[in-house]
Amino acid sequence: MDILSSAAWWFLPFALPICLYVCYTDLSRMKITNAAVLALALVFALVGLIALPFESYLWRYTHLLSVLAAGIALNAAGALGAGDAKFAAAAAPFVHIGDLQIVLAIFAVMMLAAFVAHRIARATALRRLAPHWESWSSGSRFPMGLALGPTLAVYLGLGALYGA
Question: I need a surface site. Which of 54, 100, 111, 159 has the fewest CB within 10 A?
Answer without folding.
Answer: 54
